[in-house]
C-alpha cells in the first residue's frame, strides 16, 4: 500500500473484512463484483484499491470513472470521495447534466484522476473528441448500485457504452451491489472475474405491526379527518420514531409520501417529505434538517434507498408492505447501517393481505432469500442509439463490426443478425445512417448528431409543471401533465407535505402558481411511476401462509420464526381469512363474480396476474365485445364489467391450454393505452419519430416493424411474466390448482379490498359540509392582512384571527380614528401613497385612486358589520363591492358558504378579470 494512503488510513479509518478482500482482489488485477448490504463500506472497498493504484503507478488522468445511477448520489459521493482525494493529493470531480459549462471546460483542459458520472454522461464523453485522449487512460470503471441499472434500458445502454470504452482503454470493472438473488448473473453482466462479499451476514430486526384503534385514536381521527384505523397507524408510526430517535418513514409511491407527510404535519409532528419530484433545493433542505436534528423523520420513497448522506438513522419504518424483499433490506439497511450492527425496521400493515405479505417478506429478509433481478435483454431502440454513437466515434464501420461489438455485451449476447439488420434498416429509412454501396460500410447522415444527443436518456419524457409558491417565489416541486390536466383554478392539492390552492396555470411556461391553504382535504398529486410489483415467489408464499394459518396455525407460526409480530394481530387477520369465501392460497384460485365486477383471487404477484388477466380479457372480449377493463394486482385480477359474468365460464377459461399464451397476450396488450404510449417512446428512441411528435394511432404506423417488436419486448419485460403465467395455467389444466367459484351480490372482505386498491389516502372520504366550512373559516382566520387607518395611513401586518378581540377597542393607535380597514399588502401600499399625495394636493394615479376608494368602503363595512366584514374582506378575491353584496344577504354559516363560493368563482375566472383590467 502506498505510504500516503496508509497514513490517511491510520488517521481515522480501519479496513473491515470486506474492504481487505476487495483490496486484494482489485490489486491483483481482477474485475470484481462487490456484494454487500447498505452501509457495509462498499464505496471504500471499491475506491481505496483504485486510489492506491493511481498513487503507486502514478497513473495519468482520467484514471478512473465512477458511475452512479442518480445525481443525488453523485452529490454525496463527491463529498465522500473528495475527502480521500484531498488527503492523498488525487483530484476527484463530478460531471452530469447540472454541471456548469465552466466546470466542464475545465475538466477537458485539466481532467481529474477520478470522474464521477451518470450512465448517460458516459455516452456524451465517448463522442467528445476533446475527451477521447483522457478516456484512453481509464484503468478502472466502478459501477455503483449496479442492481438499480441491470433490469432497465439504462443498464443495457451502459453495458454497450462500456464495450465502446473498452475499444479505447484497457480497464478493470468493479461493480457494487446490494444483496441480490442472482449475484452470479450480475457478475456475468458486469464481465467480472470474481465476487467479493463479507463472511458476516448483516442482521435485521424486523417487526410487522397491524395496529388496532385505541381510545385516543378516535379523537385524533376527528382532528385529522381520517378513519380511526388510519389514526391508529399514524400513532404507531410516531411511537416507533419517538422510541428510537431519528427515523426514515418509507412509502411505496410519491403520492403516498406526500399524503402521509401531510397528515403527520397536520398533527404537528416534525417531519419533512423527500422524493424525486420535489425541487432539488427542497430535497437538500429536508436531508439537512434530518441530519441537524431539526426534524425527527423524513417521509420518503426509493429516493432515500441509496447512499445519500443524512447521518446516522436509528430506525426505518415502512408504511404498507414493501412488496419485495430486496426493497425491505435496502431500506432497513439505512438504519444502524454498519456491518455487525443490527438494523431496526418496522412494517406498518394496512389490511389483512398487506399484513400477511409483510410477514412473508420479513421472513425472507431474515433468511436472506432475495429476489433475482432480471437483466433487460436485446433492447433494440438502445441498439439503434449505440449504432449511431459508434459511428460518431469511428466515422465509418462495417455492419458486422457494430454487430460484433454489441454481442460482446451481456444483454446482447443472444442478439440475432436478423434483429440487428432490422435496426440498421430502420435507421437508414429514418435518414440517420447511410450504407456505402462500394464498401458496405455504415456512415452517418445529417440528423444523426441531433438524434444521438436527444436520446441519451432511455427514461421516457415526462411533461411536468413547476409549482411556484406565490408568497415566497420559490419552486417547491413538479407535477406531471396527466395530473395537471384535471386541475382547475381554485382546486387544492398536496405538495411538499402541505396543501396548496391553485391560483393560475401558465401553459406556455409550464408553471403553476399556488399559495398554501392549510386544508386537510386536497387532491393527492400524481406522477409517472407505479406501485412496486409483488414478485411471484412472495405472492405464492403469502398464499402458502394463508393455507397453513387455516389448517395448522402452529406450523404457520413456526414458519414465521425470526419475525417479530403480535399474536393478537395475527388472530385478527386469521378471523378474516376464516370468513373469506372464496379464499386463494398457493393451491387455490377463487373466482368471485359481482354485478359490476369480477375478482379472481390469485396469489401469483402483479406480473403473472396481469398476464393471466390479459389472456382472459382476450377471450371475454371476443365473445362479449371490448367492454371490460382489468388490473393485475399482487393477490388478485380485477375486472370491471358492465354485467355479471358466469364464474363457471371464467373458471373454464382458466383451464385453457397455455400453448398460444404469448401470441394471445401480445394481441390483447396491443389494445391498451399503455402499449400506444410505450410505442410512441420506443419510436422516438429509434429516431423514427421526432421528440415532439404526438400521434394518436402510432400503433398502426409501426405495425409489423422492429418498433412494434421492441414495444412488446419492453412490456413483456416490465409488466408481464409469460413464463410464470404458462406455469400457472399448466398447473390449472392438470388439476394441480383448484378453482373455487362464487356468484355474489356483495363483495367478500378481500374482494372489497382489491376493488378499492390503489393505496389508502388517509381520508375518511368526502368531508361533511360543516367540516369544509370549519376548515375554510380557520384558513381565513390564519390569513395575513394589513390593518390600516384610512384617516392617517398608519398600518401594521397581522393575522385575521387576532382582530376579533381588538373589535372592543376599534381605533387607530396613532390618531384615534375609528375608520380602520383590512387590506391586501398591495392595496395598503397604494392607499398610503394616495394619502401622502392628497396631503400634497398631487394628482392620484388610477390604481392609487382605486385602492383609496376600496379601503374607505372597507372601513365603512367594518363599522356596519364588524367581525363578519373582516372575514369577508379576508377571502381571496372578495373586494368591498362583493363583500357588501354578500353581507347584505347572508349571516353566520350562510355567509361562509357564500364567501367560499365567491372565492372559488374568482379564482376560476381570475384570468378574465385581469384581461378586463
Shape: globular
Q: Mean of residue pLDDT?
A: 86
Q: Care to count the β-strands?
A: 30
Weakly predicted, low-confidence segments? 758-768, 910-917
Strand ordering within the main sheet: 3-4-2-5-6-1-7
The Cα radius of gyration reads 31 Å
What's the tally of helices?
39
How much helicity do the residues have?
Answer: 40-55%
Give structural notes.
- With 917 residues, the chain is an alpha/beta fold.
- Helix content is 49%, strand content 16%.
- It has 39 helices and 30 strands.
- Strands 3-4-2-5-6-1-7 form a 7-stranded parallel beta sheet, sandwiched between helices. The protein has a 7-stranded parallel beta sheet with strand order 10-11-9-12-13-8-22, sandwiched between helices. The protein has a 5-stranded mixed beta sheet with strand order 18-17-21-20-19.
- Strand 17 (464-469) and strand 18 form a beta hairpin.
- Helix 16 packs across helix 24 (567-579), helix 25 (605-624) crosses helix 27 and helix 36 runs parallel beside helix 38.
- It is globular, with a radius of gyration of 31 Å.
- The N and C termini lie far apart (76 Å).
Amino acid at each position: 500500500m502506498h505510504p500516503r494512503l496508509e497514513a490517511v488510513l491510520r488517521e481515522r479509518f480501519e479496513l473491515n473484512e470486506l474492504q481487505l478482500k476487495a483490496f486484494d482482489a482489485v490489486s491483483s488485477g481482477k474485475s470484481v463484483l462487490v456484494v454487500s448490504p447498505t452501509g457495509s463500506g462498499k464505496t471504500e472497498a471499491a475506491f481505496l484499491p483504485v486510489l492506491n493504484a493511481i498513487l503507486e503507478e502514478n497513473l495519468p488522468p482520467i484514471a478512473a470513472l465512477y458511475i452512479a445511477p442518480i445525481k443525488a448520489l453523485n452529490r454525496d459521493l463527491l463529498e465522500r470521495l473528495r475527502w480521500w482525494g484531498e488527503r492523498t493529493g488525487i483530484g476527484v470531480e463530478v460531471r452530469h447534466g447540472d454541471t456548469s459549462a465552466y466546470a466542464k471546460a475545465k475538466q477537458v483542459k485539466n481532467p481529474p484522476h477520478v470522474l464521477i458520472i451518470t450512465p448517460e454522461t458516459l455516452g456524451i464523453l465517448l463522442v467528445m473528441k476533446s475527451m477521447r485522449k483522457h478516456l484512453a487512460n481509464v484503468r478502472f470503471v466502478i459501477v455503483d448500485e449496479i442492481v438499480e441499472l441491470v433490469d432497465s434500458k439504462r443498464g443495457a445502454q451502459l453495458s454497450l457504452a462500456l464495450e465502446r470504452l473498452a475499444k479505447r482503454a484497457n480497464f478493470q470493472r468493479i461493480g457494487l451491489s446490494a444483496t441480490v438473488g442472482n449475484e452470479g448473473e450480475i457478475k456475468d453482466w458486469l464481465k467480472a472475474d470474481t465476487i467479493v462479499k463479507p463472511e458476516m451476514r448483516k442482521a435485521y430486526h424486523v417487526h410487522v405491526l397491524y395496529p388496532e384503534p385505541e381510545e385516543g385514536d378516535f379523537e385524533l381521527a376527528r382532528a385529522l379527518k381520517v378513519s380511526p384505523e388510519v389514526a391508529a397507524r399514524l400513532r404507531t408510526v410516531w411511537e416507533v420514531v419517538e422510541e428510537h430517535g431519528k427515523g426514515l418513514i418509507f412509502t411505496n409511491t410519491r403520492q403516498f409520501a406526500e399524503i402521509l407527510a401531510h397528515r403527520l404535519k397536520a398533527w404537528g409532528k416534525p417531519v419533512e417529505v423527500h422524493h424525486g419530484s420535489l425541487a432539488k433545493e427542497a430535497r437538500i433542505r429536508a436531508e439537512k434538517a434530518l441530519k441537524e436534528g431539526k426534524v425527527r423523520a423524513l417521509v420518503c420513497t426509493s429516493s432515500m434507498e441509496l447512499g445519500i448522506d443524512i447521518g446516522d438513522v436509528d430506525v426505518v419504518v415502512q408504511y404498507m408492505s414493501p412488496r419485495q424483499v430486496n426493497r425491505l433490506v435496502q431500506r432497513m439497511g439505512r438504519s444502524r447501517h454498519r456491518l455487525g450492527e443490527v438494523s431496526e425496521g418496522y412494517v406498518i400493515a394496512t389490511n389483512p393481505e398487506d399484513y400477511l405479505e409483510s410477514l412473508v417478506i420479513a421472513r425472507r429478509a431474515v433468511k436472506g432469500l432475495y429476489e433475482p433481478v432480471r437483466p433487460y435483454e436485446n433492447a433494440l431502440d438502445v441498439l439503434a442509439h449505440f449504432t449511431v454513437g459508434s459511428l460518431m466515434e469511428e466515422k465509418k464501420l462495417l455492419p458486422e463490426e457494430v454487430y460484433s461489438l454489441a454481442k460482446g455485451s451481456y444483454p446482447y449476447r443472444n442478439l440475432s443478425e436478423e434483429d440487428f439488420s432490422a435496426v440498421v434498416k430502420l435507421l437508414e429509412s429514418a435518414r440517420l445512417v447511410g450504407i456505402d454501396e462500394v464498401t458496405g460500410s455504415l456512415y452517418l447522415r445529417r440528423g444523426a448528431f441531433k438524434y444521438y444527443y436527444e436520446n441519451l436518456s432511455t427514461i421516457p419524457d415526462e411533461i411536468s409543471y413547476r409549482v411556484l409558491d406565490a408568497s415566497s417565489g420559490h419552486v417547491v416541486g413538479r407535477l406531471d401533465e396527466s395530473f395537471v390536466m384535471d386541475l382547475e383554478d381554485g382546486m387544492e392539492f398536496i405538495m411538499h407535505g402541505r396543501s396548496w390552492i391553485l391560483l393560475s396555470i401558465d401553459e406556455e411556461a409550464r408553471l403553476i402558481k399556488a399559495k398554501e391553504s392549510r386544508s386537510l382535504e386536497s387532491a393527492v398529486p400524481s406522477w409517472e411511476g407505479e406501485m412496486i410489483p409483488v414478485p411471484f415467489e412472495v405472492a405464492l408464499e403469502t398464499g402458502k401462509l394463508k393455507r397453513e394459518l387455516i389448517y395448522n396455525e402452529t406450523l404457520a407460526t413456526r414458519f414465521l420464526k425470526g419475525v417479530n409480530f403480535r399474536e393478537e394481530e395475527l388472530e385478527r387477520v386469521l378471523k378474516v381469512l376464516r370468513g373469506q369465501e372464496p379464499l386463494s392460497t398457493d393451491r387455490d384460485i377463487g373466482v368471485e363474480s359481482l354485478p359490476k365486477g369480477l375478482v379472481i383471487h390469485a396469489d401469483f404477484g402483479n406480473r403473472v396476474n396481469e398476464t393471466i388477466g390479459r389472456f382472459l380479457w382476450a377471450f371475454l372480449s371476443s365473445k362479449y365485445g371490448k367492454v371490460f377493463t382489468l388490473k393485475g394486482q399482487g393477490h388478485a385480477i380485477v375486472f370491471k364489467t358492465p354485467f355479471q359474468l358466469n364464474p363457471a365460464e371464467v373458471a373454464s377459461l382458466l383451464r385453457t391450454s397455455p400453448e398460444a399464451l404469448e401470441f394471445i397476450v401480445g394481441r390483447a396488450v396491443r389494445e391498451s393505452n399503455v402499449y400506444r404510449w410505450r410505442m410512441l417512446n420506443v419510436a422516438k428512441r429509434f429516431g423514427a419519430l421526432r421528440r415532439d411528435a404526438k400521434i394518436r394511432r402510432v400503433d398502426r404506423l409501426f405495425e409489423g416493424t422492429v418498433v412494434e417488436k421492441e414495444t412488446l419486448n419492453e412490456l413483456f419485460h416490465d409488466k408481464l411474466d409469460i413464463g410464470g403465467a404458462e406455469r400457472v395455467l399448466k398447473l390449472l389444466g392438470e388439476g394441480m390448482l383448484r378453482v373455487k367459484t362464487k356468484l355474489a351480490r356483495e363483495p367478500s372482505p378481500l374482494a372489497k379490498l382489491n376493488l378499492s386498491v390503489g393505496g389508502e389516502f388517509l381520508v375518511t372520504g368526502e368531508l361533511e359540509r360543516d367540516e369544509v366550512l370549519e376548515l375554510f373559516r380557520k384558513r381565513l382566520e390564519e390569513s395575513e392582512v394589513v390593518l390600516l387607518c384610512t384617516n392617517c395611513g398608519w398600518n401594521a401586518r397581522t393575522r385575521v384571527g387576532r382582530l376579533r378581540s381588538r373589535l372592543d377597542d376599534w381605533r387607530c393607535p396613532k390618531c384615534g380614528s375609528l375608520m380602520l380597514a383590512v387590506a391586501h399588502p398591495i392595496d395598503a401600499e397604494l392607499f398610503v401613497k394616495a394619502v401622502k399625495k392628497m396631503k400634497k394636493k398631487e394628482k392620484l394615479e388610477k390604481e392609487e385612486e382605486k385602492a383609496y376608494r376600496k379601503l374607505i368602503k372597507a372601513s365603512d363595512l367594518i363599522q356596519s358589520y364588524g367581525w363578519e366584514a373582516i372575514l369577508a374582506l379576508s377571502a381571496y378575491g372578495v373586494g368591498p363591492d362583493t363583500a357588501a353584496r354578500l353581507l347584505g344577504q347572508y349571516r353566520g354559516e350562510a355567509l361562509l358558504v357564500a364567501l367560499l363560493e365567491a372565492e372559488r368563482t374568482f379564482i376560476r375566472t381570475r384570468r378574465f378579470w385581469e384581461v378586463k383590467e
